Amino acid sequence: MQHGTAAQWARRDAAAVWHGFTQMAAYEQSAPVIVERGEGNYLYDTDGRRYLDAISSLWVMTLGHADPDLNRAATEQLHRISHSTLLGNGNTAAIALAEVLRAVVPVADPHFLFASDGAAAVEQAIKIAFQYWHNQGVTDRTAYLALGSAYHGDSVGSLSVGDGGFGTDLFDPLRFGVLRTPGYDDPDWAARAISVLDEHHQELAAAVIEPLVQGAAGILVTDPDQVAAFAGAVQARGVPLICDEVATGFGRTGALFASELCGIRPDLMCLGKGITGGYVPLSATVASSDVYEEFLGEDLGPRTFYHGHSYSGNALACAVATRHLELLFERGLIDRAAEAAEHLGKALAPVAALPTVKEVRRRGLMTGVELDPPEGASRWGRRVCAAAVRTGVLLRPLGDVVVVMPPLSITDTEIDTIAATLVTAIQAVAAEEHAEP
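The structure corresponding to this sequence follows.
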């Protein structure tokens, strides 16, 4: 193991690494956590300090770090093969994963196109929907319906169906236009979207939605009945429905997939983040048989989907993902996560009662604490998270929304620690603001 203090590692980091969503000119001054190892629900930095990973390492970790069973699955696969191309050939690990996923995803007779991250999965879904119509000789269905406040990734296509933010307005000249209807912060979002569907459904290649929770928007939540009404209207009008479950999948909302809670079966579904338990980059675009079969035809013919990635179906990632899915059920973690979510809701009641908290929004373990800073105050979200990190709880803000998204393996005691830390951190920042001249 290489040695050095956290400050030394931060200097080396800043000299060589470019971090996403990070202003590198201020990186070292922001006291970044430099992780050396993980164990269970905790991370350890290069100085040996321990942090409760209350954001699941950006919503990907589910079972905890360095899980012995997942370690074993990775090691066993490494002794076989780590990667071989899926373009025109197969590997046993990818096939096994597709088979176990087929049994649980709420998609009719599904097929899986693998990639490495959520944005790529969404990009694939957008392209599949577009070509789906072309393969039927329909060339005028080129529009997409997407919601306000949506976030679907950072590639150009996924940015296009997303609703900006995070400085992405710069890239507007590269984005294609979509039919945009309100997001979950509008109580009438479903009715308004259906109204647009009535007028424009014959122009649409697909409709795109994050079922139940718009995560990057600050954990905006909606009712399952509204999602079901929207999905039913989309599919009744013959429009393919794309459900982006990159963030909501694998137990975060209280079920394996949020679509299940809504009683819907999308035509295309995007998976990522928690698919490997946070171990290895992997994502998948799931296509129903009705969609998939429109791409079948003569070899190298025009119905072929000319799209793929070098690491698609990576054997190491697929082996870990298969074992991860098995462990979710073997350990009863979907039910346990639902119980933990109820405890989280009760534990956050003192947070919601603080005068400097505007609202606490939650669906399952996905929680957003929206702060209410006084006029003229700035960077409250970052300051609250920094205060929490100093006391050993790792959080990350979305503006003035502090996201809490612990792993499925979280304990009630750890939930209580997160909640108590949040109360203390918010009160400390409010006191600092009051003390400033």
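The chain has a mean pLDDT of 96.
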